[in-house]
Design brief:
Elements (H helix, E strand, L loop, with lengths): L1 E2 L13 H10 L4 E4 L4 H13 L4 E3 L12 H14 L5 E7 L7 H18 L3 E6 L8 H12 L6 E3 L6 H9 L2 E5 L22 E3 L21 H12 L3 H17 L1
Parallel strand pairs: 1-2, 2-3, 4-5, 5-6, 6-7, 7-8
Helix pairs in contact: 3-4, 7-8
Family: Belongs to the metallo-dependent hydrolases superfamily. TatD-type hydrolase family.
InterPro entries: DNase_TatD-rel_CS, Metal_Hydrolase, TatD-like, TatD/YcfH-like
Keywords: Hydrolase, Metal-binding
Length: 260
């Protein structure tokens, strides 16, 4: 299996990171993709890449929740890294309406700037799109609109932690993006039971978003990469296919994305 989204550099893993990763490897995880947040998370992420070469793969980008007044400085740091070496993806980037609406305009500006970087370096992107608490502000739709306005037909990537409806899933797929499916698929009211049966497996990749969004039966506790097996088994259940088929196809989907 390939874990396409895990913050394994997070300080929640400082006490047992090695053991946590060993559990992941024992569970059959072959790669772990690490989304960046801002300049402060780069060193820890790259240290893990060095410790586990070819296994822990770093992205480079600025997370929308870390977009503040100084976002242009953050973008300069990201572009400097992208100009120095190869990264498999730009991420995580996007729009967050959940936590703080003070910097939405800056989030959109930063998102477009990072779409330009994706085009410049011909890289896929990892999108964070979280709706407002009351559901009135739809970040998935807003990201789709900005991608459509940007207009680069070769733009590709993952809508990470997808939790939208079937219509939104189909719009994402029509843009040549994959759906990152994680612990929400195991939640009783997560809504994925109404979406995943209608989505072809070729449009899905696996993720945990560790240390966040642990799947059932660990919901509310610290998430970890090994729990991705629970996500894969839930997808198999919802789609009435084998666990092995989910593992095989989602691995192919992930590798195809970063090897283009």
């Amino acid at each position: 299996m390939i874990e396409t989204h895990a913050h394994i550099y997070d300080d929640q893993f400082d006490e047992d990171r090695g053991a946590m990763l060993q559990r992941a490897f024992d569970a059959g995880i072959k790669q772990i993709w690490m989304p960046n947040c801002d300049h402060e998370t780069i060193d820890g992420m790259l240290a893990l890449e060095q410790q586990y070469p070819g296994i822990c793969l770093p992205m480079m980008g600025v997370h929308p929740c870390y977009i503040k007044e100084n976002f242009e400085q953050e973008l300069n740091i990201i572009e400097n890294w992208l100009s120095q070496r190869k990264f498999p993806m730009i991420g995580e980037i996007g729009i967050d309406f959940y936590w703080d609406l003070s910097y939405v305009a800056q989030q959109e500006e930063a998102f477009i700037a990072q779409l330009r970087l994706a085009q410049k370096y011909n890289l896929p992107i990892c999108i964070h799109s979280r709706n407002s608490k009351n559901g009135e502000l739809n970040a998935i739709v807003r990201c789709i609109e900005l991608i459509e306005q940007f207009g680069w037909s070769d733009l590709r990537g993952i809508f990470h932690c997808f939790s939208g409806n079937l219509e939104e899933a189909q719009r994402v797929i029509s843009l040549n993006f994959l759906l990152g499916i994680g612990g929400v698929a195991t939640f009783k009211n997560g809504g994925m039971d109404k979406v995943l049966p209608s989505i072809d497996l070729q449009h899905i990749v696996l993720e945990t978003d560790s240390p966040y969004l642990a799947p059932v039966p660990h919901r509310g506790k610290r998430n970890e990469v090994a729990y991705i097996e629970l996500v894969a088994r839930r997808i198999a259940e919802l789609k009435q296919i084998s666990f092995a088929e989910v593992v095989n196809q989602t691995t192919i989907n992930a590798l195809n994305l970063i090897q283009k």
